[in-house]
Amino acid sequence: MTGYALNEEGQYIHLKQMDIRFEGTDAQVTFYYELDMFSRVYVFLLGSYNLQPTLENVLFDFEQVEVREIGRNHAVVHVSNISRQNSEYYLHDSRALGAKVDMLTMVYPDGSSRNVPGATSTPYTFYGG
Fold this sequence. Notes:
Blueprint: E1 4-6, E2 12-23, E3 26-35, H1 37-46, H2 52-58, E4 64-70, E5 74-80, E6 84-86, E7 89-92, E8 95-107, E9 113-122, E10 125-128
Parallel strand pairs: 2-8
Antiparallel strand pairs: 1-2, 2-3, 3-5, 4-5, 6-7, 7-10, 8-9
């Protein structure tokens, strides 16, 4: 299933876009997704916080993940220590994702960005502070 993740409750989520906005050694990750009909009803009845395990599973390869906001079609997650500082640059090592994302966009502190279609991992990269 391309671009779909499955959590313990059997919910399906189609990961359309994932934006990683680097902020020093940390990053804000924003997911944009679509839920199948069953999942939309489930979230409507029981609340969007039930999507948290699915989002955490997508970021399983990251050490410090904090879900800050979950909506019907987007979520915001803070990832600490996503990169390490080396002199005046930051280095981000590739990390596996728990699901395929249609489009991964990496946004650097200077405002430039890099798109990775069909991402199953984050690419190695470096950027300035």
